[in-house]
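Predict both folds.
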Amino acid sequence: MNTKRIGKVMLCLTVMLAASVFCVGDVLAWNWGVHAYIDDNLGKSGPLRNMNEIYGGVGPDVFNYMFDDPQLREYLFQKTHEDFMGLWRKACTPLGKAEAYGFVSHNELWGADHTAHVKAHTLGDEVTEGYVIVKARALGEAAPSFGLPQLESLGIPAPVALVFYHNLVEAAVDILLIRDHPDIDIGRRLASSAILRSPEFPLLLVRAYAKDFAQAKGVPYVEAVKLITASEKEFRKSVVLYGQTLMQDENTAIQLLSEQMADLAMSFLAANGLGLPEGYTVADLVLLANGYIRVAMLFCAADYADEIAATIEFVRGGLESNHISY
């Protein structure tokens, strides 16, 4: 593929991914592998409770793939990431508490996403952004030196380009985490967490959000319940798939992550009655995503582990100060 064609395909992929993520209002922070690792180091040590903590830890992302209704997705995303304590208060059984414990650990105020998106803890006091944001900016700036186009040079607005770099950094950190912790088998734990999740989790989502959602959007309560439970059902499958992806050898995992990113972009387009521009293929998108993930890994390899370790202690302190224990 020549340089001009690479630029055109990257432009197409960036716009697709940015459009899908910007509908949420905020870009995502740590990916599911990191959240699984963090929650594996918090809470209870019992296997079943631990699995439910891990699933709860990725649970705030349950509505992220509602491409057919961007406004509704943004509303629900904000509810799960900012109005998270309601779910904790609704939990009453041991496994429900485990799920809720993981759920509240995810937040951006004092949870795991804070260090990724708001303020890194190990990159120096002068750094005023989250770890993933810092690395995403570095990835974009250095792209030409690795034979990849800098998205801003293609006329992409800087905030839109940052979304793309951000998603690639997330994937890169998950791969590095798997590489450096083969003994933990993070992919298996993530997939198992979805398989073994307590049936209480979708009920907790309903108790925490269905009433407000129905009132805010002017829909019957029963419709809100159906949408929440259906979304959780599909989300659960996605977590299993992502865990299985991380269980593969490194090259296969990177390839599968690249394919999943392209598939998500295609899903967004299809939901809006669009397709790829003439002359472009999904294979082109996969190839470029693969290359960017590998470059992002180079930028994160030396210091990601320190940031995650600091994140675990930060979240532990946040849970304790907010009296979250069971």
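Second protein follows, with its predicted structure tokens after the sequence.
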Amino acid sequence: MRDPRDLFELLTGDIEAQAPVLLHSLSGFLDAGQAGRLAVAHLLGSLEHRAVATFDLDDLYDYRARRPRMTFRADHFVSIDLPSLELVEVRDAAGVPFLLLHGAEPDHAWQRLAEAVRLLVDQFAVRLTIGLHAIPWPAPHTRPVGVTAHATDSALVAGYAPWVGELEVPGHLAGLLELHLGDTGHDAMGFAAHVPHYLVGAEFPTASLTLLEHTARASGLTLPLGELAEAADRTRAEIEAQISANPENVGAVRALEAQYDAVMSSRALDGVGAADDAPLPTGDEIAAQVERFLADMDDGQA
């Protein structure tokens, strides 16, 4: 394996954080409702931060598979939105420093990159790494956003009831990073917010708010959530207005609510922490109105 240090440039080896927490959220996979992107944007937009390390994406990113957007004006190109991946030091609302790895999920050299992050974790004596992402879920937007918690040590997610047993999912760098950190003796965990499956293509700040609430609880960080909560309220009102304009959409959501509430009642009877033998219904099991609702949302007509 080529030297993982070749993948990044360390801008400073001197950070103020002592045994910091490292948060990470990468675009490109497992970001339903753009929950991770919105959470990162909120943190960087509301907290003081500075770059610590940058990664050379020319060795990591497939530009032809995921072509960056360019702006053309009349007779010339104006700009290009090139992807980036960087590690920044952020101060929470109480002035406590933490680290945040954010940007595009690379297409290549995953194992080298995971080792590169491990080297940075060791260099900065990171005590806990937390991944933020979001997944489609057969749940209505009218219910609290659930989360799937996972960790290298079950003690880190004590009190979180599993939603599923064993299953295979597409590989992603965030998952590999958690595995690699665990294999090398580091504490790592993550939260996957459950985004209503009919809202996966839209911005859903309620899921971002949920991710940061759980992250704050797990890490002890003081994260500003007021503006994000306001954005979640506005988005919820917009969704309600769209749905109420179509009686079939209203019926579809009510049916989904009934199914979701039945599953939650079953989980409550089973006890907190018990694996659920009767998982939530899949999208294919939702009534025909939901399928039409999904199509309407995709077309921007709902």
